[in-house]
Write a structure and sequence with these properties.
This protein has about 190 residues and is of the alpha/beta class. It has helices at about 15-35, 70-75, 85-100, 120-130, 145, 175-185, and strands at about 60-65, 75-80, 110-115, 135-140, 155-160, 165-170. The radius of gyration is 24 Å and the shape is elongated.
């Protein structure tokens, strides 16, 4: 039994060359596009035009720390978005708990749940974060995440007393990196 390999004819070669050219242009174009984008986990903050953080006031509170929501947001504070299905969020929430335990000068933390049914989010917090100093709130309309133009989970913001975003991180962030960022902002 003989196997034959079909060799492209002269008429087919221009089509193959053209297809290879289109693929090359697409790959190079995608590379240039990705190269010019900011790193996905860092959101650049323009010092000349500070960006205001969305307010968390008006969101329903279901697990409060030692302060009221108003007291938390009157000073520098950290806001993090989370959901029960998000494992990186749980890791970040645990690191934020450790931050508050290890650094007495750390800003308070508001944890904004992303539009999950109240019973699910409350049950999760009661099981996983019983004695937490984090301030848990629910955002039924997922407004906060949309307003910060979120696309990664979690989204973490450090917000000034004036409501300006001092730092915005997309995706998971480790405790060491967060501590370094807080120290660079002279908040620890």
């Amino acid at each position: 039994m003989r196997f034959h390999t079909k060799v492209p004819t002269l008429r087919q070669k221009p089509v193959l060359v053209g297809l290879a050219g289109v693929c090359t242009v697409a790959v190079v174009g995608a590379g240039v596009f990705m190269w010019n984008r900011p790193a996905p986990h860092e959101v650049s903050i323009d010092d000349a035009a500070p960006r205001m953080a969305p307010t968390v006031s008006g969101l329903s509170t279901y697990r409060a720390g030692p302060l009221s929501l108003q007291e938390v947001t009157e000073g520098v504070h950290i806001v993090v978005t989370w959901a029960t299905w998000c494992r990186p969020c749980e890791m970040v929430l645990r690191d934020l708990e450790r931050l508050l335990e290890e650094y007495s000068s750390a800003p308070p933390v508001v944890a904004v749940n992303r539009a999950e049914p109240d019973t699910i989010a409350r049950g999760y917090v009661e099981r996983q974060f019983q004695d937490s100093a984090l301030f848990f709130v629910s955002d039924d309309a997922d407004r906060y995440f949309k307003d910060v133009e979120g696309y990664a989970m979690p989204e973490l913001l450090i917000v000034s007393a004036q409501g300006e975003i001092m730092y915005h991180h997309r995706g998971p962030i480790g405790l060491d990196e967060l501590v370094a960022q807080l120290q660079s902002l002279e908040l620890l």
